[in-house]
Structures are given as C-alpha cells and as structure tokens.
Amino acid sequence: MVPKLSLITDQTSSVASSRPFADAMSALASGVAVVTCELDGRPWGMTVTAFASVSADPPTVLVSIDSDATAADALAASGRFGVSILAEDQLAVARHGAAPGKSKFLEAFVDPDHTDDASPMVAGALAHLDCEVERTIRVADHTVFFARVRAAHATHFGMPLVYHSRDYRTLGAPAGRRPPTEGRTTCLAT
Fold first, then answer.
1. Do 136 and 145 form a contact (C-beta atoms < 8 A)?
2. What's residue 130's pLDDT?
C-alpha cells in the first residue's frame, strides 16, 4: 500500500507554507559542495547544496545563495568562484562552511599547491570547478549565480558526502558511521 502524501499548501494562500515546503525538500538528497572565493585576500567558503549543472556545452553551473549572505556579496564583487565537491570524509569542512554567524575562512582546508585557478580548492575534494559569473538573478530571498566553468579538476577517488533529511550522510549511512558493507556490492535488480 502506498502511503498518502501530506498536503503542503497553506489553505489561505496559493503558495506552500515555508515549514511544510522545507520538510518536503528535505526528502531530496543532495551532494555537498563548498563555494569558494578570495575574501580580503584569504580563501573563504560556504557550504551549499543548491548547486547544479546547467549545461555541458558550454560547461555552465548554477549556485543559489541567500542574498543577505556574505557569499552573495563576495561572488558578485569578484565575478569568480570555485566549487569543491566534498568527499564523505570531509564532514569537518562541510560543518565549518555551514556554521551560521561564524568565520568561514578556509586556510585549514584549502590545497596550498593548487594555484593554477582563480578560486581556492578544498584539499581532498572529489572535484573542483573554477567558475566565472555570467548572470545573476534574484529570486525571493536568494540570488542564483549562473557561471561558466573555466577549469575542472576531478579526482574520482572516494565517495561523496550527501545531505538528506537535514543531516550529512554517506551513501551507506549517516556521516561518521561505517557503511553496512565494506566492499562493492552488485545490483540486486539484475
């Protein structure tokens, strides 16, 4: 039997209420990335899950950031940013970049040898994109930055850190816990 989904709309409005909307969106698993830039000459970054590929030709991505956040001002001023896609063992950097009201300078987390791009790269990230802002659009309380990818680096080593149901997780279990199996498994559907 399929469970009934709860109604997420406010009966007095044609727009969903914020809390039920947030509850519904927490069901969507997202990769965890840190958007990086230079701020006052120092590497700075903010953890995001609202990041997506827009096009492969030309390579284009988008990131959505609270318009009142320091990151929105920094990205708009510099016109460039990086995106480091985090591995499952990078929970500390994810929490650092997500801490509200805290300094988000990244000296402890960046790759000091990565100097060929304009944006700081988180050391050990699964991938890093160096991006140049093409367009910004303000939508409600967020600014969406569309950017061309100028350089891309992928390691393909390791598994991603994901965010689901308001918690960081690995593909096998909540982050920090061992997945249920240590080896690779085959698809049970085949």
1. yes
2. 96
